[in-house]
Write a structure and sequence with these properties.
4 strands, alpha+beta, GMP Synthetase, Chain A, domain 3, 25% helix, single chain
C-alpha cells in the first residue's frame, strides 16, 4: 500500500480526531504535529517510557498516515518567569 503524503493541515485535523483516544493509551504523554526524517508532516505520539508491549498496541498508521513514536518522557507544565 502506498504511503499518503500529508499537508500540515491534514495532520492537524488527524490529531484533532484521534488525540483523545491516543492520550488514553498507557504510556502516551503527548500528541503533536511534526516532520519526519524526510521532512514530511506526521502525527507524532510522545511516549513516557520504552514499554515495548504498550507500543505493540499502538498503530503504525492512522487513516493511511504514518505515525512517529518518540520517547520523550512525561510532560510537565513549566512556570512562567513571573510566577513564584
Amino acid at each position: 500500500m502506498e504511503e499518503t503524503i500529508a499537508t500540515k493541515q491534514e495532520i492537524r485535523e488527524l490529531k484533532h480526531r484521534h488525540s483523545a483516544r491516543l492520550l488514553s493509551q498507557p504510556g502516551v504523554s503527548g500528541v503533536g504535529v511534526e516532520k519526519d526524517d524526510k521532512g514530511e508532516y506526521v502525527l507524532a505520539v510522545h511516549l513516557d517510557s520504552d514499554d515495548s508491549e504498550g507500543l505493540k498496541l499502538l498503530p503504525d498508521k492512522i487513516e493511511g498516515y504514518s505515525v512517529k513514536y518518540i520517547k520523550s518522557g512525561p510532560f510537565r507544565k513549566l512556570r512562567a518567569n513571573n510566577e513564584k
